[in-house]
Each structure stands twice: as C-alpha cells, then as structure tokens.
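Teaching soon. Got one?

===
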Amino acid sequence: MPASPPVLQRRLGTADAAAVVVSNVIGSGILITPAFIAATAPTAGAMLSAWLVGGLLAFAGAMAYAELAALRPRAGGEYVYLREAFGPLAAFLTGWTSFVAGFSGAIAASAVGLASYLGRFVPAAADTSPLVALPIGVATLTVSRQSLVALAAIAALSGVHIRGLGPGRVVQNLLAVAKVVTLVAFVAVGLSFGQGSATHFAPGGATTTTVGFLMALIPVMFSYSGWNAAAYVAEEVRDPGRNVPRALALGTAAVVVVYLALNVLYVYAMPVPELVGLQVRVIDAAADRLFGSQVGDALAVITIFIVAGSISAMVFAGPRVYFAMARDGLFFRRAARVHPSYHTPAFAIAAQGLWSGVLVLSGTFGQLVDYTGFAVVLFAGIAVLGLFVLRWREPDADRPFRALGYPVAPAVFVIASLAIVVNAVISNPRPSAAGVLIIALGVPIYFFITRRARRR
C-alpha cells in the first residue's frame, strides 16, 4: 500500500492567517508609490479613489481565493488552483517564478532594505564596501557588512519559521501588530497635531484622464500584492472552509483601511502636485512637513517593523508553494518532507533562504523583482480565472464558501489584472521581456523534471 503524502498540521486560527496577509501586503511600497500615483492621478480625489478602487479589486480577488482555498484547502495558494484548473505546467510556472524571483527576490530586496534602515542607528549595518568578492561566471558574489546583516535577518527569520508554527506564529503576529499599531499611531498623531492643511484636498485646476487613472492603478495594485497570502497556508489553518475566508477578508480589509488612512495623511501634509517627483520617501517628506526633521528616528523604527514583518511573512508563505510542488514531484523531493519534531516544511524554508542569500550576495534581486513584478498580477488573475473553470467543471462540489459578488466581482478582477499586465508590457517592454524569459525558462525545466520522474 503506497505511503500517504505528507501533510502539515492545522494549528493556525483566523487571526494568525490574517496577520500573514497584513504583513505580506504592508511593505515599503506604501512608503514610496504614492509619488508615482500622484503623477497620473494629480488630485486628492483621484489619488484616494485609485487606492479605494485598488482595494476593492484586491478584496474581490481575496474573496475568489477564499472560495478556492475552501474548495482546495491545501498548501501552495495559486499553485494548487492553477494545477486544478489548467494543469501541472501552468502550476509549475507560478511556483518556479515564486522561487526564482517572486518570494526569494522580494525577501532579498527587503533584507537589504532592512540593513540600510538599521544603518541609521548602527552605521556599519549599511556599509556596502566589499569585504570579499567571488566571481562565479555570470555574477560576482560580494560580501559586505550590509549583505552580512541582510543574510543574518534572512537566516534568523528562516530559523524561527523552521522551528515550528508556535514560535513562527508568535513572531509573525507581533510584527504584524507592531506595524499596524505604529502606522495607525502615526496617522492619528499626524492628523491631530501635525502642521498640515485640509485645503490640500480641494480639487484645484488639475484633471485626471481615464488613461491616467488606469496607469495609477498599476502601482496601487503592486502595493496591494500579498492579499492572497493566507491561501498559501490554508493546509495549516483550522476549519479552513470558515477561517481562511475570514482571514482573507479581515486581512485585506485592514490593509485597505490603513492604506487609505496613510494617503489621507500624505495629502494633509502636502498638496498632491508636490508629491510628484519626490527624491525621498513619501512618508519621510510627509513627516518633515507635519513635525519637522526631528522625527527621523521614529520613522526609521516604523520602517524596520514594516520591513521585518514583510520578510517574516514571505519566509512563512513562500515555502508552502515549494512544499506543494515537491509533493507533486516538481521540486526537490526533500522539500516535501515535514520535519518530524517541528512539523514544518523545513527543507523548503531552508532552500528559499539559501537562494535568497545568493541573490543578496549577487546583487541581482533588484532586477529579478523588476522583471517579474507583473507576474504577481498575472498569476493571480489566472488563478481567479480558475474559479470559473472549477465552477463549470465541478458544479456539485462542496463549497464551504462562495465568492462574494460572483460572477461580476471575479470577472472584473480578471479583466483588471489583464489590463495591468498588458499595460506593464507595453510601458516597460525590456524588463517585461526579461520577465517573460525568466518565466519561459521554467518550461524546459518542467519537462526535464517530469521526464526524469517517469524514468524512475
């Protein structure tokens, strides 16, 4: 009798899974992207509307994922949904992209950013002077004090999540609460005591075109990416048919509220035209206007909480994709093993941490994230499209949760995702072509793996 496939323990509750969503979404993007959004949505009303529309799209996607996760409560998120709806090749390509760039590249970029923010308090942490340089063909691995701090952050958080859901959940929840509390406090203090002006919300003479508004949605949606994070850990959530939809709804709604509040504060601090072309982070410029330059240390602490929480959430969620791939024979076989003591996909976590470390040392993470950024929207849109496929293919399947607003809301999400991807390809053809090439490289690798598996 064949051995049953390895499974993960169901120990997470609604709050735990919602914390993964919050930490995954709220990252450094919200501190920077409003400047780009203001360029194409140059009034307060248009800018805030873009964030609201983006939030509604993210919520529509979250509700579609909620149905898919309740229907297939397995680890892996869209890897599982693409496999069920469109077959193993499509699923492998999303998993391949997640490992090569999506999660690992974002972890590397965030870890380097964390080191640079720590440099405000410990200058050596941000020192990029090379200590050792090792050429390895197409790239050079460069060790600096900054890269060592970044590697230490990746190793520490990987170790926490390897050690089990208990310590991993505590760290993740604390970081999520810390980042939300500090941001909410910043907004409350800024609106109550900051030197801003409500006149900045007046329409003014600027106008927003339809094309400009659609362009604004691109960075907005990238800033909301991560709303689907709870789906990756569905196999570890108790009563997933009820708790995963709740976590996706609560986590996404919380992020939308925080993002809207932050943007209200940004506009209160300075007129929208002044946001365009800022040479510093928007949150820094807003704080200088509201309180003066003396708040820099407090902002650095806020940023550290934000970035550390994002790294932790990605370290937690990403390996569940590779675990699911390995269980299907499409990744290192050891990645499908559950640690006998910690009950976590320890090898998958370690593999992701190792590759993220290589990206830190090679300095290629920035290009990988830029090249494959559109893939986040692409694969999420395809996964939501899979909802229609599975509704048609399995009309009588037990669905503990049904997507709110079906079929209109998920259809709008799919169309919006397609429009964003097409626009990204047209607007930035070279980086997009590189991203398409990285994704396409997964095709021969997939056939090599499956052919090798058949020979065994």
Remarks:
- The mean pLDDT is 90.
- The chain has one domain: 14-395+402-423.
